[in-house]
């Protein structure tokens, strides 16, 4: 789901969403923290396995996938920072977290894009990596589940930062599919170029998501703050037309 689609969905549901009571909001904040913490741990393991498999096989794509996992772990730390007790209802922290996650999108795009071009120009053919294929297959299944869970929590909290981090998990799933196709094509058909070509497309998607996340929606970025204060969109003095 693109950042624009997320904003559109948020606008459509804002009018009917009831403000969260303080104890209920605290429960959802804990869920956001648990999901972010789980994501950080998962990506740490994912990065270690990918880099190890990439070094063994001489696969730039696998090493690049490991670097992507490190950036995604960084995004998880950003969400944990955003929902620390002192910032749980902070509009400024929400916007800053959203911008930091946007930067991490650009980091993913830059690294994956550069590695894909190097792979294409160098014509380096990696050895088959069944460990890498297994990792990509597992990640393809798990990342969409984590992304949907974060989208649900982000929607309930009115947190664009949490939703954006979930979008990174979906990007990881797309990259896993590309990696799986590329490693599989190389192992089974000898099509070494399939991996870098698909990785370039993923890099383009990351740039788009990063730009949309950075732009945000200035009129509607403070939903979590309004909900925490028991207010509605009509109470914030913002022109409602920009939120529809």
Features:
Alpha-lytic protease prodomain-like, mainly alpha, elongated, 244 residues
Q: Tell me the name of the CATH class.
A: Mainly Alpha
What is the helix/strand order?
A: HHHHHHHH
User: Helix tally?
Assistant: 8
Largest sheet: none
- pLDDT < 50 stretches: 218-244
CATH architect. name:
Up-down Bundle
The tally of structural domains comes to 1
Describe this structure in words.
This protein has 244 residues and is mainly alpha-helical. It has a single domain, classed as Alpha-lytic protease prodomain-like (Up-down Bundle), CATH 1.20.1510. It has helices at residues 3-14, 22-57, 60-82, 91-122, 130-157, 160-188, 194-215, 223-228. Helix 4 packs parallel to helix 6 (160-188). It is elongated and about 60 Å long. The protein starts with a helix and ends in a 16-residue tail after the last helix. Mean pLDDT is 75; it is low at 218-244.
